[in-house]
Q: What sequence folds into this?
């Protein structure tokens, strides 16, 4: 009886062979499916190709160079042949007063931008949505979108001129009020408000387009129903529009938090000067000065990598929190 | 409960009039259905009552008070929309309570009202769910809950069942009817579905092209349509309509078409009416099927038979136009294939003027 059973049931080796064959078959079937899919949809992949190439060339390939953050990099020896030195650069980084100052400034400026800059496009979109006169609405939108299309250099030029102590409009107005001229752009305490205000002025209008699109997607019957229920325009804005666009707000907030440490580098370079380094120097300008101007590529890479890791942690955290509490997330 | 009165109501979009001076009085507690094809102005009329559309001319009164210039919230009406208009970010209880919260009612009252309405509509176990987690029927119930919780003077329904499947629609129709019986609130209901109109209404208002074609109880409209449009709109399938010329037959007037003659009732309008162009209307259920051996039958060309169980629809052509007969199947199924024509009693035939489409006088029937 038992002999018969032994013949009937496959041995462990046979089972392993069968399992291996099944896995191979599954792989073959999957490959065949992918092949079929590619043959059917190849045009879509051709369209996708330039973006993938761009990502690989400009975002992934440079990651190879990140290793110099852990090496004593020399231009002559190249990335591969420079000797490993572990976390020396990072130790040096955190021992550097300049880096700690840049880190602090980055965090402060980022938070100021987030607190004042993030709600501004939402408020603008809500206000645009309430304008009933179409011509006025379109004109206002154009005026508010316009600074986005102006080069940062020109924006910085406008700011420098506006705050100029001799002929700037701000000091002229202050003069009318009997206030003495202030050298705004040379005073460390004024840099952050000026910078944050400038970036809001430049980008808030353009960023409001995302929210306007989200508002356009809210069903008009929700408002009609609320009107019949007795809601005022104010109540409709806060009880219908804002909650309806909340998923968009959260997605934008996650993206914003992810980019938080990417403080507008060129605008700072254009506006700051040694007198304002104390409040204006951020990680990116620090990297720029150390890496490109000082030739310390490895040290600057360590600072850049630190920046990227913090940004990654921030975006992951924001996404997880959002997923848990609002059912909205990037992935 | 309040009455609703529309006097010479006009709605214009620029130079185009879409509602042309409608007069309508809806009695307190009455359930009136506005029915008509798409674009006939029924939803616009309802929205003018709600205050969601400005009134271009005439007056709307609710409970004897002219409300033309009164905001929707102060008209004491509640509206149920076609796509439910539920707030996706609020749960069922919050959706139902929305109107009360806006009006800053006390919390305890809101809670009690929501629980009561939840109980009436069978939503008690769903109060914590969001609209996305509900079925179509449940969402529709929440939309109704939001309307009834405010205890308004008038309910306005804008095609509330058209997003539901056929089975659920039948179920919800009955629920609306039951709810109206229970609450007795004056209701104005817009639909393009004549079955909904027939089953729900105390009175039906048939609209076409921004005008009222006829107002009456469902049976009045079914039996005595004022014109060929109403005749063709109400009834499922609708009334068959044949263009014919009146001639003198051996026993009175006949309608002649395609070489056949159909005896008509001796209506006053048909006296001396030889040669008059008319439209002859025959309800599918009033035509009796006839096989080859029946004399005096109107010949038809059979096309197909749709069996519905206890009855069947016979699709045929008469003089090139479609003609439908509704007949019992029990004991008849065997002969349906050999149907060659139909007979119909003259008093069951409706005759309309060939030019205006208006029903000729003297053919009113009682239910």
A:
């Amino acid at each position: 009886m038992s002999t018969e059973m032994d013949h009937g049931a496959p041995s462990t080796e046979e089972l392993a062979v069968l399992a291996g064959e099944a896995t191979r078959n599954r792989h073959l079937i999957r490959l065949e499916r992918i092949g079929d899919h590619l043959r059917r949809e190849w045009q879509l992949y051709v369209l996708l190709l330039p973006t993938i190439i761009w990502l690989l060339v400009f975002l992934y390939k440079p990651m190879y160079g990140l290793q110099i953050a852990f090496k004593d990099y020399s231009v002559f020896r190249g990335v591969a042949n420079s000797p490993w030195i572990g976390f020396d650069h990072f130790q040096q980084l955190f021992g550097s007063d300049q880096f700690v100052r840049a880190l602090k400034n980055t965090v402060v400026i980022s938070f100021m931008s987030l607190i004042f800059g993030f709600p501004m496009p939402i408020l603008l979109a809500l206000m645009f949505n309430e304008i009933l006169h179409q011509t006025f609405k379109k004109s206002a939108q154009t005026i508010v979108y316009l600074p986005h299309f102006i080069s940062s250099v020109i924006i910085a030029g406008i700011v420098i001129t506006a705050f100029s102590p001799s002929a700037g409009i701000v000091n002229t107005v202050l003069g009318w009020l009997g206030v003495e001229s202030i050298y705004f752009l040379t005073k460390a305490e004024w840099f952050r408000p000026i910078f944050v205000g400038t970036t809001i002025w430049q980008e808030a209008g353009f960023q409001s387009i995302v929210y306007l699109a989200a508002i356009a997607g809210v069903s008009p019957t929700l408002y009609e129903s609320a009107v019949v229920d007795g809601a005022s325009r104010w109540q409709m804005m806060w009880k219908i529009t804002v909650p309806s666009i909340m998923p968009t707000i959260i997605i934008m907030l996650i993206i914003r938090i992810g980019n938080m440490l990417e403080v507008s580098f060129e605008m700072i370079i254009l506006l700051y000067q040694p007198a304002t380094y104390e409040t204006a120097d951020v990680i990116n300008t620090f990297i720029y000065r150390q890496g490109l101007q000082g030739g310390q590529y490895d040290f600057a890479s360590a600072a850049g990598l630190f920046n990227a890791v913090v940004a990654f942690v921030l975006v992951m955290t924001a996404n997880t929190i959002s997923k848990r509490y609002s059912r909205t997330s990037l992935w | 409960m309040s009455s609703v009165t529309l006097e010479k109501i006009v709605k214009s979009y620029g130079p185009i009039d879409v509602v042309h001076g409608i007069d309508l009085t809806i009695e307190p507690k009455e359930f009136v259905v506005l029915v008509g094809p798409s674009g006939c102005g029924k939803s616009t009329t309802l929205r003018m009552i709600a205050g969601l559309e400005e009134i271009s001319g005439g007056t709307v009164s609710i409970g004897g008070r002219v409300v033309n210039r009164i905001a929707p919230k102060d008209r004491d009406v509640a509206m149920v929309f076609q796509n439910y208009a539920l707030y996706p970010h609020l749960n069922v209880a919050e959706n139902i309570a929305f109107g009360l919260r806006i009006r800053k009612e006390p919390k305890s009252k809101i809670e009690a009202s929501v629980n009561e309405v939840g109980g009436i509509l069978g939503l008690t176990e769903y109060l914590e769910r969001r609209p996305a987690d509900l079925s179509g029927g449940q969402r529709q119930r929440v939309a109704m809950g939001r309307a009834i919780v405010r205890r308004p003077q008038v309910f306005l329904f804008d095609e509330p069942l058209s997003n539901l499947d056929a089975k659920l629609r039948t179920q919800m129709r009955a629920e609306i009817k039951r709810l109206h019986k229970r609450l007795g609130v004056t209701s104005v209901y817009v639909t393009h579905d004549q079955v909904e109109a027939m089953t729900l209404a105390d009175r039906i208002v048939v609209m076409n092209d921004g005008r009222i074609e006829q107002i009456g109880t469902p049976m009045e409209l079914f039996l005595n349509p004022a014109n060929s449009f109403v005749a063709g709109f109400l009834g499922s399938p609708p009334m068959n309509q044949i263009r014919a010329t009146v001639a003198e037959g051996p026993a009175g007037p006949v309608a002649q078409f395609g070489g056949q003659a159909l005896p008509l009732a001796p209506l006053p309008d048909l006296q001396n009416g030889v040669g008059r162009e008319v439209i002859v209307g025959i309800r599918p259920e009033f035509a009796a099927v006839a096989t080859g051996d029946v004399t005096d039958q109107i010949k038809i060309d059979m096309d197909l038979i749709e069996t519905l169980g206890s009855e069947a629809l016979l699709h045929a052509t008469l003089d090139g136009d479609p003609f439908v007969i509704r007949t019992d199947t029990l004991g008849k199924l065997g002969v349906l294939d050999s149907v060659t024509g139909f007979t119909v009693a003259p008093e069951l035939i409706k005759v309309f003027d060939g030019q205006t489409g208006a029903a000729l006088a003297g053919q009113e029937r009682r239910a």
